[in-house]
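not sure who needs this but someone in the group chat was asking about ArsR family transcriptional regulator from Halorubrum distributum JCM 9100 so here u go. i didnt clean anything up, its just raw.
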Amino acid sequence: MQHHLEVLQESNIVTTEGDNYGQMYFLSDRMMNNLDIMEDVAEQAGVDDDA
C-alpha cells in the first residue's frame, strides 16, 4: 500500500502531513480543484459512489 501512496504523492494527487506511522494523506489542491472532472469521468465509467 505504501508504494501506491508514494506513486499518488509523486503524481501530485495526494499530499502528506506528519511523519512515519502518524503520516496522513490528503487530496492535493490540484485534485481538489478538479474534483468535478474526476466525478464526470467516474460517472462515464459507471463507477458507483457506494462501492
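also The chain has one domain: 2-45. if thats useful
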